[in-house]
Write a structure and sequence with these properties.
The complex is a heterodimer. Chain A is mostly helical. Chain A has 8 helices and 3 strands; from the N terminus they run H-E-H-H-E-E-H-H-H-H-H. Chain B is of the alpha/beta class. In chain B, helix 3 crosses helix 4 (118-131). The chains are: A mainly alpha, B alpha/beta.
Chain lengths: 194, 241
């Protein structure tokens, strides 16, 4: 849905061809989320079917010029005005990995957390470099996107820090589900000593 | 290239007997001119001890700390104090500015204490304030400056003169997000101009300004980030950026 609404937002500015929409979308998102042109055409097809865009110039896909309709404008306004749906939360591989590691004998949760933290901080370093190199004053959309990725990655590190502290309080680096009463002590596994 | 700061197999033990605490255990780390390293870790992991030893404020129980190739333990107390005054700058969460002195007087104070003449110290302080874009506010007192401006003065004071090593202990702790970024930009810029910086922080977003992030846990270096692959690696089709 978000790609369709983004295409409508670009179309609101002027009637546009599909390929130009793809390029404009990527320019505004710093090529962070590339679209393939087939995806753009199929999304435009759905928007046309739903009466949110109309075709001004017909021909092959590449020759079609699209314009937003009144219904499209209304839908776009509603998208901007309505809080983004956050529930149910999307599946998160990192969360799943930690949850599974808790019950997995032979996996040191402390090591999993540290590897994930290093990866997240390395990503933060790359994003920060992008931010430092960019001309953010001139490109507000790009700046917003980078800030969003930076804050999301930072939140992961904070969650990992908190998980580590929770693990520390729990006093074990790997607790098999089957034998919770026999949790291996931290010292024995070489995990967190205190 | 020789390191600006190097910890060589450093162990630091506080207390004795059953109250003994090993704050650092066999830590070896180095930072080169032009490099900013960040140290992260939970409370009690040894971050601040690492900085105290780098600044010559404390001695390791074993191992060596070298600043610009000089083993601090081989220097007299007077020489360590001189090195600390002339070559090392400190930035803390608390700005530690003196209320009765203006921004430029606060900045020039370390040089004057080191015997530099008033005029020379003031000129150097104005150059340092220019580095943090505060030369226009040089004659304001701390209570006439915003919190962010006060932290910038404390950075100017830390880099004034011929400092080669900047030690920053949670410098963004009292600042909002945007001002914190400005402060990190200044530390980064100091290193980009050939200085060396060691930043201790809880905040991954600020640690990410460093060239390398070192993770401490229970007094040991448990991990560090690899050099970045280059931000372009994040862009799948880096056209026009």
């Amino acid at each position: 849905m978000s790609i369709g609404m983004s295409l409508l937002a670009i179309l609101e500015e002027a009637p546009t061809y599909g390929l130009r929409l793809k390029n404009e979308f990527e320019a505004r998102t710093g090529t962070m989320w590339p679209l393939n042109v087939g995806q753009v055409y199929s999304t435009l097809g759905r928007l046309e079917r739903d009466g949110l865009v109309r075709v001004l110039e017909h021909g092959s896909e590449a020759q079609k010029l699209y314009e937003i309709t009144e219904a499209g404008l209304e839908q776009l306004r509603s998208w901007f005005d309505t809080p983004t749906q956050m529930l149910p939360p999307a599946r998160d591989e990192l969360v799943l990995k930690l949850v599974m590691a808790v019950g997995h004998e032979g996996v040191n949760l402390q090591d999993v957390i540290q590897a994930e933290r290093r990866g997240a901080v390395e990503l933060l370093q790359e994003l920060t470099l992008l931010k430092r190199k960019g001309s953010l004053e001139k490109d507000l959309g790009w700046a917003l996107l980078l800030d969003s990725l930076i804050f999301q990655t930072e939140a992961r590190v904070r969650w990992l820090d908190d998980s580590e502290a929770r693990l520390h309080r729990h006093g074990a680096s790997s607790v098999p589900h089957e034998q919770p009463q026999q949790a291996t002590s931290v010292q024995e596994t070489g995990g967190v000593p205190r | 290239m020789s390191a600006t700061i190097e910890w060589l197999d450093v162990t630091k033990v506080y207390g004795s007997g059953h109250l003994q605490v090993e704050a650092l255990s066999h830590v070896s780390l180095r930072a080169l001119p032009g490099e900013l390293i960040a140290v992260m870790g939970p409370s009690g992991s040894g971050k601040s001890t690492l900085l105290s030893l780098a600044g010559g404020l404390d001695q390791p129980t074993s191992g060596k700390v070298l600043v610009a190739g000089k083993d601090l333990s081989s220097l007299s107390v007077t020489d360590v104090a001189r090195l600390r005054r002339r070559r090392i700058g400190y930035v803390f969460q608390q700005f530690n500015l003196i209320d009765g002195l203006t921004a430029v007087e606060n900045t020039s104070l370390p040089l004057e204490l080191d015997g530099v003449g008033k005029r020379g110290a003031r000129e150097a302080a104005l150059r340092a304030l220019a580095q943090v874009a505060l030369e226009q506010l040089a004659d304001r007192f701390p209570d006439e400056l915003s919190v962010g401006e006060q932290q910038r003065v404390s950075i100017a004071r830390a880099v004034v003169g011929e400092r080669i090593l900047l030690l920053a202990d949670e410098p963004t702790g009292a600042l909002d997000s945007v001002t914190g970024e400005t402060v990190l930009g200044l530390l980064r810029s100091h290193c980009d101009q050939g200085g060396c910086g060691v930043l201790v922080t809880h905040d991954a977003r600020f640690a990410a300004w460093a060239d390398r992030v070192v993770f401490l846990r229970d007094g040991r270096v448990v991990d560090q980030t690899s050099p970045t692959a280059g931000p372009e690696s994040l862009l799948r089709d880096p056209v026009g950026r």
